């Protein structure tokens, strides 16, 4: 049976263990970063962050322990770091990173491409759209996804040369009382 790249999807995320702090000894809660092998449904090599450290350093340790060849590694915004992206690509893998305010230049460059597309200035840009509409817990969630190849004039290409595609996701939630909230990622 031939495996696809998606069979090697690895999701990296950090969690803080509840009630793991020891205030009497000045110790904060225990924070653990794990890689989730979606193919097998198991956590791989959990790494505890060092005291006075953060998730970023633990991700680097975890990546050294993992086989990244032909893997697609997903990481939330905390892991959206140039060194982490470089490490994944150097190991033969690809990445999907959530971009937020911790990378303002990259977030602005992505927003500029999306905005130009929505204004009709990027009609020739190869892209895909997807939309879902789900109901549950008394609310309605509409999700809109847009993804495209990185255009040649992408403003962040120099700092992020490994990026092949960009995208955005919009969720509009209609609550039971009729109010709406939205989230753009």
Automatic annotation (TrEMBL):
Species of the source: Gemmata obscuriglobus
Gene Ontology BP terms: DNA transposition
GO MF term (any one): DNA binding
Name of the protein in question: Transposase IS4-like domain-containing protein
Superkingdom of the source species: Bacteria
Record domain Transposase IS4-like: where: 8-130
């Amino acid at each position: 049976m031939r495996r696809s790249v998606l069979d090697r999807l690895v999701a990296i995320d950090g969690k803080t263990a509840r009630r793991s702090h020891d205030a009497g000894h000045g110790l904060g809660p225990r924070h653990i970063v794990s890689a989730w092998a979606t193919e097998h449904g198991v956590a791989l090599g959990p790494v505890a962050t060092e005291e006075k450290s953060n998730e970023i350093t633990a991700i680097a340790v975890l990546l050294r322990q993992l086989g990244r060849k032909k893997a697609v590694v997903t990481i939330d915004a905390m892991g959206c770091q140039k060194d982490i992206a470089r490490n994944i690509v150097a190991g033969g893998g690809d990445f999907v990173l959530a971009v937020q305010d911790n990378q303002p230049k990259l977030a602005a460059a992505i927003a500029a491409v999306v905005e130009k597309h929505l204004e009709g200035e990027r009609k020739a840009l190869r892209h895909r759209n997807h939309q879902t509409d789900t109901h549950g817990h008394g609310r309605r969630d509409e999700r809109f996804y847009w993804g495209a190849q990185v255009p040649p004039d992408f403003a962040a290409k120099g700092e992020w040369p490994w990026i092949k595609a960009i995208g955005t996701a919009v969720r509009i939630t209609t609550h039971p009382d009729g109010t709406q909230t939205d989230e753009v990622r």
